[in-house]
Amino acid sequence: MIDALHHIQLAMPAGGEDDARKFYCGVLLFTETPKPAALQGRGGVWFEAGSVRVHLGVETPFAPAKKAHPGFQVTSLDAAIRHLKAHGVEPRTDTDLPDIRRVYVNDPFGNRIELLELR
């Protein structure tokens, strides 16, 4: 029934688009993609990196996702950690799994993001 994951939706507070751009484009190296004209009045912002799509939508009242999270696969977790630290983002380590090394960061709104490397 399901063919693929099309996008991930995360919540953000109203007016947070510039902070989202700074983090998702400036730190995680996503590219902003235009929202369809019919949805532009709702606020929020959309991003892509390769085949990964992330949509940030305005939620009122806003509450960050502290447990639920996307897991973004990276080629080199060590390189990703160096990149994050160079941008002032301190990743949190967690227990690695037999086939996965991983760290967590929060976006500017407190949403949990996992970065992982397959072994």
CATH topology: the name is: 2,3-Dihydroxybiphenyl 1,2-Dioxygenase, domain 1
Which spans of ≥5 residues are poorly predicted at pLDDT below 50? Answer: none
Secondary structure tally: strands: 8
- Helix fraction, binned, reads 10-25%
Radius of gyration: 15 Å
Query: Outline, from the CA principal axes?
Result: globular
Give the biggest beta sheet: 4 strands, mixed
β-strand percent reads 25-35%
The average pLDDT value, as a whole number, equals 96
Class in CATH?
Alpha Beta
Topology order in helix (H) and strand (E) letters: EHEEEEHEEE
Number of structural domains: 1
- The CATH architecture term is Roll
CATH superfamily caption? 2,3-Dihydroxybiphenyl 1,2-Dioxygenase, domain 1
Question: Order of strands side by side in the largest beta sheet?
Answer: 1-4-3-2
Pfam family, one: Glyoxalase
Keywords: Dioxygenase, Lyase, Oxidoreductase
Protein name: Catechol 2,3-dioxygenase-like lactoylglutathione lyase family enzyme
GO molecular function, one term: lyase activity
In short:
The protein is of the alpha/beta class and 119 residues long. The chain has two helices and eight strands.
